[in-house]
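Why predict the complex rather than its parts? Because the way molecules touch one another can change local conformation, and only a joint prediction can capture that. The input here totals 231 residues.
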Amino acid sequence: MHSLLTGKTLIAFDLDGTLIDSVPDLTAAVGQALAAQGLAVPTESEVRHWVGNGAPVLVERALSWALAQTSSQTPDEALNARTYADFLRFYAAEPSARTRLYPGVKPALEALHGAGFSLALITNKPARFIDPILESFGLNAFFSLCLGGDSLAQKKPDPLPLNHVAKTLGVEAHACVMVGDSRHDMAAGKAAGFTTVALPYGYNHGEPIAASHPDWLLDSLSQLLTTETQD
Ligand SMILES: O=C(O)COP(=O)(O)O
Ligand SMILES: [Mg+2]
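Output of the joint prediction:
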């Protein structure tokens, strides 16, 4: 009997929908940015489906939703750029006031870090928000390397950030695990040759994460340390 983590040395985590439920703060910032353009404001359940492809795509999706609520404005680049700039400003002002850690996250990171695993963070969120958010939950010290959606030339589902983390930390892909909530995490993990672990509670564009065929589907991060395999 082996543990799911036998032979693994590096564990890469997604952020939004995996470690933190960030949709309340994303909804507030998107809502403030849309309201500043005189547009309709979406609810959390709408925004939940728009997260996962980075902030520019989130704002694009929010804008097309808001414009569809009214016939008075049509999309244009200037409106998009203004709304995106406002979103960044509003989100930077309050990136974690309403954000919560999912159950079991901090004890799991503590235990994995204590057991000697290298931990990395690979999010599609703009990199500038990573530190302030991790800091407000006391998580910074656990991660050897953090990458945002704008850190490299490609973001998830491209495997580039995963390859970069493995190479930088000197770990072969077969000893790496990608833990995430969305099909982009699973696609990037598979393409990089990592073992993929999915969590079902986050944001996956309204689709069950099982459809992405993760190697492991867990209920919470605490199961990373307790899941056994027969082989
Ligand atoms: O789309 C985002 O901004 C966040 O996505 P993440 O799930 O990769 O952290
Ligand atoms: Mg995610």
